[in-house]
Amino acid sequence: MKLSQEQILQISKGDTEIAAFITMLTQRIEQLEARVKDLERQLNQNSNNSSKPPSSDGFRKPTNLRTPGGKKGAPKGHKGHTLLFSEHPDHVIEHQLWSCQNCAASLANVPSFHYERRQVFDIPAPRVVNTEHRAFKKCCPACGSLQQASFPEHVCAPTQYGDGFAAWTSYLHGYQFLPLKRIAQLFADLTGCRPSEATLLSYLKKMNQVLETLELTIRKQLLAEPLVHADESMMRVEGKGHWLHVVSTAAWTLLGVHKKRGHEAFQEMKVLPNFKGDVVHDCCMSYFKDVYSFRHVLCNAHLLRECQGIVEYDKHDWAAQMKQLLQKSWKLTCTARQQNVTVAGEKIRDIEQRYDDILAAGKLEWEKDFVRQKSGSRGRKIKSKAANLGERFMLYKEPILRFLRDAHVPFDNNQAERDLRMSKVKQKISGSFRTEPGVGIFSRIRSVISTMLKQEFPLISSLTAAYRGQFTF
Questions:
Q1: CA gyration radius for the chain?
Q2: Residue 304 — very low, low, confident or very high, per pLDDT cuts 50/70/90?
Q3: What is the pLDDT of residue 51?
Q4: SS in 3 state form for the chain?
Q5: In three state form, how does the secondary structure of 144-212 look?
Q6: pLDDT score of 167
């Protein structure tokens, strides 16, 4: 910092002025160091030490928080997908022996006593099946009027695409996340027929209409569940920020897009305002409105990541201890659930006491954190990251530790995050949804497809039946 001539003269007047100037410099240095620390924190935040999603990590390799070692490969209970022999192959090619490979003697007349099988499974070249409908005409001999047979209701044009194209369009749009142009190109490459983008869009609009009944079924089933997961993520529509909301379980998924993140969106989805069970969420304040009757369960995975961020940047011992306590508590709970027993009441009380002791010691740490000065008079008092996290632990102790007492309560909100993640892939491919009706169509189709996958329905045949109004969950 360059000193002006006037400042130099002031310093030379005496020790008092020098001490004051040094104090001023020290305060300024502390402010700048705190700002640098905040900027470094923002720069180095990733999905392992904050609430940022994994998609924001980019090409940086995040720190692996998993415990090294253990069994490799698929987890226990994972269903395999081994290619099995077919007892009724479509084609059989026999490979005969005609001469001995050792002495060249003829084996043409020697009968075979055994054979070894190998099968090759392949996809035939797809082709479009063209069905012609003929409505015959007759002349009535009694009255002389000309009569014609009726076409089926769904056959309404001289030439048209069938329901299979509509089902495949919905599948490619809502599951493979292809834009309409690429869907049209795929049809052209596979079948030689290229529907226009307007035709494909009409299929999606009609599918959206016929799936409304299935969406009502999903909503009804979610309202009957004892516990649901809820989350939201930013989604760009018409170049502006909207929110993609999800309410889901292991068997049901309901997605919806709204301009707002909180209460208005919940009202439009028509689940949380009428729900009476437990809701797992990420501590967004909109969930804590007094108008709701559900119980709160907070995602501990988010809290673990935030604790990791406090450990890395603020070097607080309490955050490391809290992280360790939550991990050990969940491990203890998993062991008890595997044995079909509950965690002993004495152990729960010990955990809760340890929880309180960590926060009591932590308060002494986060009260020493430097906090930048507030720029205006309005709003809440500025607190450090560690103080905000610590006070959240204090305020929501019961929702955080509910997994210790209730066997159906999970440790994290991963179910909702998984149900949101693939919709974010759609946005990465397409960039932004062009219209609000378009993102509404996608969210409804995606809700039904996600539910079909969870319940192990075959997608193409199920979507075809749904398009014809013949599918129910």
A1: 33
A2: very high
A3: 65
A4: CCCCHHHHHHHCCCHHHHHHHHHHHHHHHHHHHHHHHHHHHHHHCCCCCCCCCHHHHCCCCCCCCCCCCCCCCCCCCCCCCCCCCCCCCCCCCCCCCCECCCCCCECCCCCCCCCCCCCCCCCCCCCCCCCCCCCCEEECCCCCCEEECCCCCCCCCCCCCCHHHHHHHHHHHHCCCCCHHHHHHHHHHHHCCCCCHHHHHHHHHHHHHHCHHHHHHHHHHHHCCCEEEEEEEEEEECCEEEEEEEEECCCCEEEEEECCCCHHHHHHHCCHHHCCCEEEECCCHHHHCCCCCCEEEECHHHHHHHHHHHHHHHCCHHHHHHHHHHHHHHHHHHHHHHCCCCCCHHHHHHHHHHHHHHHHHHHHHHCCCCCCCCCCCCCCCCCCHHHHHHHHHHHCHHHHCHHHCCCCCCCCCHHHHHHHHHHHHHHHHHCCECCHHHHHHHHHHHHHHHHHHHCCCCHHHHHHHHHCCCCCC
A5: CCEEECCCCCCCCCCCCCCHHHHHHHHHHHHCCCCCHHHHHHHHHHHHCCCCCHHHHHHHHHHHHHHCH
A6: 95
Report the alpha-carbon distance of residue 265 to residue 245 in Å, rounded.
8
CA–CA gap between residue 431 and residue 427 (Å, rounded): 5
293: which 2 tokens?
A: 């009757």
Residue 44 has pLDDT above 90, yes or no: no
Q: How big is the CA angle at 111 (ends 105 and 116), to the nearest 5 degrees? A: 100
Position 254 scores a pLDDT of 97
* Distance separating the N- and C-terminal Cα atoms of the chain: 71
Digit-coded pLDDT (tens) for 71-114: 666 777 777 778 899 999 999 999 999 999 999 999 999 999 89
pLDDT score recorded for residue 56: 61
Residue 277 is encoded by which pair of tokens?
């069970």
Band the pLDDT of 320: cuts 50, 70, 90.
Answer: very high
Other Cβ atoms less than 10 A from the Cβ of 451: the count is 23
Distance CA(346)–CA(344), nearest Å, equals 5
pLDDT band at 369 (very low <50, low <70, confident <90, very high): confident
Q: Dihedral of CA 103/106/112/113: which sign?
A: negative
pLDDT in tens, 127-181: 899 999 999 999 999 998 999 999 998 899 999 999 999 999 999 999 999 999 9
The pairing of beta strand 240-248 with beta strand 253-258: antiparallel
Mean predicted confidence (pLDDT) in 51-68? 60
State how far the Cα of 180 lies from the Cα of 429, in Å rounded to an integer: 12
At 66 the pLDDT is: 59
